[in-house]
Amino acid sequence: MTHHIAVIPGDGIGMEVIPAGLRVLNHLNAAHGLGLEFEHFDLGAERYLRDGTTMPPELMVRFRESFDAIYLGALGDSRVPSNVHAKDILLGCRFELDLFTNLRPIQMLNAKYCPLKDKTPEDIDIMVFRENTEGLYVSIGGQFKKGTADEISTQTEINTRKGVERIIRAAYEYADKNGRKSVCMSDKSNAMRQGHDLWQRCWKEVAAEYPHIQSFHLYVDVLCMELVRCPERFDVIVTNNLFGDIVTDLGAQIQGGIGLAASGNIHPGKVSLFEPVHGSAPDIAGKGIANPLAAILSSGMLLAHLGHPDLEARIRAAVRHCLDTSQVTGELGGNLNTEAVTNAVLAHLDTTAQ
Ligand code: ATP
């Protein structure tokens, strides 16, 4: 069986960490005959500046019809201040491929990289389900009298019955299938009385279908406090697009930093997109020193999506080994570059080969 994977390194350190992740995927592909076939796409700021292309519509059709996964680096370049290419490529894929689940693990792999004191890897193992196709990110709004003292700007949050219900159900299904004990739904229904009332009603209905899973609710401000105070309270979290974006950046720090945060943009059973949470990091781009572990962990999520959770677990174990042995890049206090960290991951995969 062949799996077609589209590769978009994108901008900045995306061009450094995606090749690292591909080395891991190629290694496992060769060892296990996974049938992975990669096609590389020249999309990102360079391409946009060269010929104005952001995301060709016919390519979106190909992604939908002929690919199993997309492996994306990062998008962002100061030469494109509007960020139009990032909007068309990443948000384009999320919306047009209906990647409604943004799956973001918050998993501490080694306590020494966690800024919270006295926490262990057993304490921080959370899966966040961020709604990925609605909310405040749909760009519905307008501006009136722009640039004047009387300017009015509106930005509308969209919550649909279908969209809210399916992300909440996805979180419960995941909890159910993976032996997770609880699901926390987070909103701001005390202040956002229409849209988040819909979240409340959908949540109560879906939660009632899973009586064996403990359900609880926190307003998002309380969730932020609790994630820092007592992360061990959490197992699975489900929330909307904006809150999920913010909460998972907080989560990235408590798990050990943005260089370790992986993500999947998923529509179950259809083409899905995997990317590190970090951006293009222009301050360190081109130096070969970016931490490749978030991209490598994202490649593991890609393999799990293709039906190989065992290989994802091996990748995670290899990353854990690098952290345990301090084979890490500078921002984690190490002295290895991107290539050397990737070599260490590959060496560990060799030691765990069946
Ligand atoms: P963008 O506009 O593309 O989001 P950004 O610089 O605003 O870029 P990030 O790219 O996430 O946001 O970077 C935030 C900070 O974290 C930067 O100082 C960057 O150098 C650092 N950083 C991000 N990713 C990594 C990584 N993989 N390895 C090392 N440092 C990283």
What does this structure look like?
The chain contains eleven helices and twelve strands. The longest helix has 19 residues, at about 15-30. The protein is globular, with a radius of gyration of 20 Å. The protein is an alpha/beta fold and about 350 residues long. The protein has a ten-stranded mixed β-sheet with strand order 2-1-3-12-11-4-5-10-8-9, with helices on both faces. Strands 6-7 form a two-stranded antiparallel sheet. It folds into two domains: about 1-100 and about 260-354, 3-Layer(aba) Sandwich (Isopropylmalate Dehydrogenase), CATH 3.40.718; about 115-130 and about 160-255, Rossmann fold (3-Layer(aba) Sandwich), CATH 3.40.50. Adenosine-5'-triphosphate binds near residues 17, 290 and 291.
What sort of overall outline do the alpha carbons produce when their principal axes are compared? globular
Supply Rg.
Answer: 20 Å
In round numbers, the mean pLDDT is 96
> What structural class is derived from the secondary structure elements?
alpha/beta
| pLDDT < 50 stretches | none
The kinds of small molecule bound in this structure are: adenosine-5'-triphosphate
So what's the CATH class of the largest domain? Alpha Beta
